[in-house]
Amino acid sequence: MKLSLLTKAIFTIVLLFLTENNIFAQTKYQKDFYEFWSDINKHYAYLERQNIDWNKVKEIYSAQAEEVTNDNEFIQLLENTLNELYNGHSSLSMNLNTSNRLIPSWSDIRIEKDQNKYLIKDLRKGFGAELAGLKIGMQVTLFNGVSIDEQLKSFLPRFTDYHSPKMYQYALDMLFAGTHDKKRVITVVENGERKTFEPVSYGNRNELLYYKVINENTGYVKINNSLGNNNLIGEFDKALDSLIFHKNLILDLTETPSGGNSTVGRAIMGRFVNKLLPYQIHEFDEKDYDTKRHWVEYVSPRKKIYKGNVYVLVGHWTGSMGEGIAIGFDALNRATVIGTPMAGLLGAISNFRLTETKIGFQFPTERLYHINGIPREDFIPKILCENIEETLEKAKEVAL
């Protein structure tokens, strides 16, 4: 009996020694990869809705983490892992020269697959692709001289053999956004003739917004990707005050791909309501207790209220908080939303930081809904358009 107890004690000590040795033997990259995977596993709000097999993802990429020897290789591994989430609302806080540009913030062209062809469906106004001469409707045949189909494989999720239309659209958006270190070369066929374009990628203009009087009836305000800058609130107030007596107001959110914060969003919407009203629903998983938490976010009136007709323009480059403002105006019954489907960025994001490498990353931890229960990413404008050109034409009609 004594020998048996001694044997068990020795076995336990050896087991603990081997376990601790295995933990200590892990590289900092292995430790951080498991932390990265675990944070997403516990907090990512859309694993179930997107049907992502996150355990399969761990199986695929943990083996690669064992081979990582430097920070650059690790960053590339994390970027590849984030592709498994196939949505532009998940990203790292740092990148390499070889990294892909973030979408939709750095994209300027919307390519969609139509049967066996890749067609330009939309262009970001005033950005590289449009300025280079590319046109809506052109058929794209090559990207950087290589077949499109072959290059999409780099961005498609590996946890499944079935790739949905949303997965393919994510891959297309990533591919045509390009990388930081290379010029983009886009080959098209137009009227049977092959042409090559080299659009330049660059950031947004510095002005927070632009506004003007279209005619005696209609004012126009365009937000220039500044919904994350609290200084926009004062600038918006000045613009709206100068247009307060116009019968119609066009609020252009087609250039808000990087989203922003709800303080700015609520401040803007607050100029259009005369009482406290709900504008969106939040949902959060409390996984430790198998419960869900729901709450409604409200808009409060502020300053002088604009009482005229409001038309909100949206598009493929309306992202995150821009999408929140659009569904908010719709929920408040204070505007007609005009445009294409929006960027479809999922939820509200939270920020995380890895212990060993100190690399920051962010992903959606809350699901967001229209007051009527429709997921924000599924919202369709009341006046649905094919592209930005059609959206602007519709805006001209309401400005009469």
From TrEMBL:
GO molecular function terms attached to this record: serine-type peptidase activity
Lineage start: Bacteria, Pseudomonadati, Bacteroidota, Sphingobacteriia, Sphingobacteriales
Biological processes, Gene Ontology terms: proteolysis
Protein's name according to its UniProt entry: Peptidase
Coiled coil: none
Domain Tail specific protease: start-end pairs: 181-386
Source organism of this protein record: Sphingobacterium paramultivorum
Pfam families attached to this UniProt entry: Peptidase_S41, Tricorn_C1
